[in-house]
């Protein structure tokens, strides 16, 4: 159990974390630490936290997600939570845990679009905007 | 009259037991025929209350029962610890209150997630919380 890890994949300027199975507290804390370290060393601009494999999220995990989002934002990276199951969303809202300030998307692809869009706006300011595929997205 | 047709007792003493408790509650919820949303709510409430036992009372005991009244089935979970008790219960039940730098949503959130919520606590003796979720 103690060697258990959640893999963090690099996808261009983003990091993808797929959380699956049972999440316990030590694992959640380790992830928080490793992820923020990776954002710092790789200069990642965004983090995709795929929780589609989680059948429940309690306040400890909710707090972990909010903390990751706050820390990455301080380090100039956005965190998007992707794939939250409907029953999990309903439960979180009823608990009063609404994850303020955390971006969400239906799936990894949409999450990447969201991140690219936000980065795109940031780059437009610095005149360095070069992503044309964004215009071709079909809504 | 409420009938108890099956029950199981778990001893909670370390973090991994929270996962075990959630899995057991999931089994009971499925057996009782709870829908996915209600199952998720009950497991989440159980996760919060089990974690509280560990954090604030050094662990305790959980018993999970399959209950039924007339034609309605449900799951009842009893969380019992011999910890310090909750000194100011009204405060502890308030959204956002935490003595531990937590989100303070465990107790009030768990209460909202279940159909019945009873709490008994005594300073220096411990805390007993009983929650029930009925099949709709
Ligand atoms: N089993 C318990 N024994 C003693 N104190 C408890 C117990 N459960 C909860 N508490 C107290 O109630 C407070 C609120 O609990 P909760 O709503 O779960 O929020 P959090 O765990 O985030 O602090 C805790 O901070 C703690 O002081
Ligand atoms: Mg708590």
Describe the protein's architecture and organization:
- The complex is a heterodimer of chains A (139) and B (136).
- Chain A is α/β, with parallel strands linked by helices.
- Chain A has a single domain, classed as Transcription Regulator spoIIAA, CATH 3.30.750.24.
- Chain A is built from 4 helices and 5 strands.
- In chain A, helix 1 links the parallel strand 2 (14-20) and strand 3.
- In chain A, helix 1 (25-42) runs parallel beside helix 2 (59-74).
- The radius of gyration of chain A is 15 Å and the shape is globular.
- Residues 127-139 of chain A have low confidence and may be disordered.
- Chain B has 136 residues and is an alpha+beta fold.
- Helix content of chain B is 38%, strand content 35%.
- Chain B is built from 4 helices and 5 strands.
- A 5-stranded antiparallel sheet of chain B has the order 1-2-3-5-4, covered by helices on one side.
- In chain B, strand 2 and strand 3 form a beta hairpin.
- Chain B is globular.
- The mean pLDDT of chain B is 96.
- The interface between A and B is medium-sized, with 23 and 27 residues.
- The structure holds adenosine-5'-diphosphate and magnesium ion.
- The site of adenosine-5'-diphosphate has 22 residues of chain B, from helix 2 and helix 4.
What's the order of the H and E elements of chain A? Answer: EEHEHEHEH
The largest inter-chain interface, given as chain pair and residues per side, is: A-B, 23 and 27 residues
Termini of chain A, distance in Å?
Answer: 43 Å
Which shape of chain B, going by the Cα principal axes? globular
| Tally of domains of chain A | 1
The total strand number of chain A stands at 5
CATH superfamily of chain A: STAS domain
Question: In terms of per-residue confidence, which ranges of chain B show pLDDT below 50 for 5 or more consecutive residues?
Answer: none
Classify the beta-strand content of chain B into a percent band. 25-35%
The chain-level structural class of chain A is: alpha/beta
Mean pLDDT of chain B: 96
Question: What is the count of helical runs of chain B?
Answer: 4
CATH architecture of chain A: 2-Layer Sandwich
């Amino acid at each position: 159990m103690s060697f258990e890890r959640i893999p963090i994949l690099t996808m261009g300027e983003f990091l993808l974390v797929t959380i699956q199975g049972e999440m316990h507290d030590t694992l959640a804390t380790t992830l928080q630490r490793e992820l923020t370290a990776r954002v710092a060393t790789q200069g990642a601009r965004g983090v995709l936290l795929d929780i589609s494999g989680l059948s429940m999220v309690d306040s400890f995990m909710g707090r972990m997600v909010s903390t990751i989002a706050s820390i990455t934002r301080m380090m100039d990276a956005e965190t998007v939570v992707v794939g939250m199951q409907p029953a999990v969303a309903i439960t979180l809202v009823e608990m009063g845990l609404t994850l303020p300030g955390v971006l969400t998307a239906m799936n990894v692809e949409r999450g990447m679009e969201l991140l690219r869009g936000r980065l795109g706006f940031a780059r437009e300011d610095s005149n360095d905007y070069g992503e044309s595929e964004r215009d071709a997205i079909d809504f | 009259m409420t009938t108890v047709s099956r029950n199981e007792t778990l001893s909670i003493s370390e973090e991994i037991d929270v996962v075990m408790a959630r899995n057991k509650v999931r089994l009971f919820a499925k057996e009782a025929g709870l829908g996915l949303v209600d199952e998720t709510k009950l497991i989440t409430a159980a996760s919060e209350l089990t974690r509280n036992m560990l954090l604030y009372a050094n662990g305790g005991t959980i018993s999970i029962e399959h209950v039924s009244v007339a034609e309605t089935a449900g799951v009842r979970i009893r969380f019992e610890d011999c910890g310090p008790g909750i000194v100011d219960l009204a405060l502890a039940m308030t959204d956002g209150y935490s003595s531990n730098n937590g989100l303070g949503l465990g107790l009030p959130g768990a209460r909202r997630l279940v159909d019945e919520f009873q709490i008994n606590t005594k300073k220096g003796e411990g805390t007993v919380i009983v929650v029930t979720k009925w099949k709709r």
